[in-house]
Amino acid sequence: MLTQINRPITFILFFAANLAYAQNNLLFEDIEFTNSMRLVVMHPHYDERSTYESYDLIIDDKKTFDSLRSSLTYGSEVTNFWDRNEPSIILLDGDQSIKRWAINPMKASIRIDGKSYRFNTDLIQELASKYPLNYSTEKTEFTSPEEFEEFRSQVQNDQSYLFMYKPNFDYQGFFEVRFMRSNKFRHPKDIDPFLRPQLKKITSEEEFRISYVANEYNLSHRNQFTMKVDANKNLYEQFNGKKCEKLGWTDAVYTATVFKQTTYNSR
């Protein structure tokens, strides 16, 4: 009799715990799942302490995807908080990443398009206990796109292969530009409309890429934003930015990082 009473109580508590997160915001609302898709959650490979390894999972079954559609929801917007070691939810189609979200277990939040929302990260940990993932990474350097394509065709035939970060052969290297936080620059998104027109005066928009990397320096120095500009060296040499500090030039290293599943667990 005691068991019969506990079950509905457990369900009610579970439902109540998730009610705060469920506001009809479905994480997968606009996604049509296919048989070639896989859902992966991974702690960052550079985190030597594997802080959030218990959240790592892989699901490659469409039926399971469909069952998660109504349960993976997010709630109201919360204050943005960046953690260098936060896990990522990655939706793969083959080896192509088509969607990616970052979750923060300490803040019970998920970041979507640069904004954070309430999210029950415990659900991810529960799924990881049913669909665990162990993975490894391998880095390989290349001197040409042809050399990389030959390598890629070989690694894609490996059963353990998940996906890779491909080398970018579009640019000769990169430089960084540092902006101090101010009323004008409250967020990295405020910088792009200011910086991009300056770069376009030197070269076409297709010849460079601006990004903000949540690296250790940016996370620990909140009074500034250091932006990364991938480009050819002539842009770096001609650029004399306004209201910013131009940092040094770094030559590109054409490296692929391959992610592989190292163990297969029976379900």
Structural account:
The chain has 267 residues and is α+β, with helices and mostly antiparallel strands. It is built from seven helices and 15 strands.
Residue-averaged pLDDT: 89
Tell me the helix content.
25-40%
Rounded to the nearest angstrom, the radius of gyration is: 22 Å
Distance between the termini: 31 Å
> What does the overall shape look like?
globular
- The assigned structural class equals alpha+beta
Spans with pLDDT under 50 lasting ≥5 residues? 1-17
Number of strands: 15
Strand order of the largest sheet: 1-4-8-7-6-5-2-3
State which percent range the strand residues make up. Answer: 25-35%
Biggest sheet, open or closed, and with what strands and sense?
8 strands, antiparallel
SSE pattern, N- to C-terminal: HEEEHEEEEEHEHEEHEHEHEE
Q: Count up the helices.
A: 7
